[in-house]
Design brief:
By secondary structure, the protein is α/β, with parallel strands linked by helices. It has helices at about 15-25, 30-40, 45-55, 60-70, 90-100, 115-135, 145-160, 160-165, 180-195; strands spanning about 1-5, 30, 80-85, 110-115, 170-175. It has a single domain (about 1-195), classed as P-loop containing nucleotide triphosphate hydrolases (Rossmann fold), CATH 3.40.50.300.
């Protein structure tokens, strides 16, 4: 199973991905983690990334796709993988397609967690105020202003990735506003349908 998870920040992608990891025995690949691992391992592409990051630059799509290409060659990803938070842009989606094609691989499904963004912002504001009330520090991701900026970036850059996969017949929309178990059940039935069709 080679999957991509799409959806705005706070939609529950991480929660659902970890359930799929447990169920299917495939790794969840986050570009941030892969980037740090490649830099730490001093792979050729990791060294390129480190040079860019040390100079304060943003790592190019070419480097990110190179890191994904290296990672999916590892033993634990041979049965499949879940890409979480990648591709973030149309250019990355196209580069990912080319890279997979070169390896003779293809995606099985792209799952988009659809959520009401107003409710999402309210959820984050509630979580932040609960943390403050309990005298706990507010997680950086739960700062409402930072969250709104991340949401704007998602709507500007990443929301266009879903139609790209819809045109290819790979996209399944999942109602992300339901309970965690209901969302999992929707995902399982979508993946069962993909397995039955292949």
């Amino acid at each position: 199973m080679r999957l991509i998870f799409l959806g705005p920040p706070g939609a529950g992608k991480g929660t659902q991905a970890s359930r799929l990891v447990a169920r299917h025995g495939i790794p969840q690949l986050s570009t941030g983690d892969m980037l740090r691992a490649a830099v730490a391992a001093q792979t050729p592409v990791g060294q390129k990334a480190k040079a860019v990051m040390d100079a304060g630059g943003l790592v190019s799509d070419e480097i990110v796709v190179g890191i994904v290409a290296d990672r999916i060659e590892e033993e634990d990803a041979r049965k499949g993988f879940i890409l979480d938070g990648f591709p973030r842009t149309l250019a990355q989606a196209e580069a990912l397609d080319r890279m997979l094609e070169e390896k003779g691989l293809k995606l099985d499904a792209v799952l988009e967690l659809e959520v009401d963004q107003t409710q999402l912002v309210n959820r984050i504001i509630k979580r932040a105020s609960e943390a403050k009330a309990a005298g706990e520090p507010v997680r950086k991701d739960d700062d409402p202003e930072i969250f709104k900026q991340r949401l704007e970036a998602y709507n500007r850059d990443t929301a266009v990735v879903a139609p790209y996969y819809r045109e290819r017949g790979l996209l399944t929309a999942i109602d992300g506003m339901k309970s965690i178990d209901d969302v999992s059940a929707q995902i399982d039935s979508a993946l069962d349908a993909v397995s039955a069709a292949s």
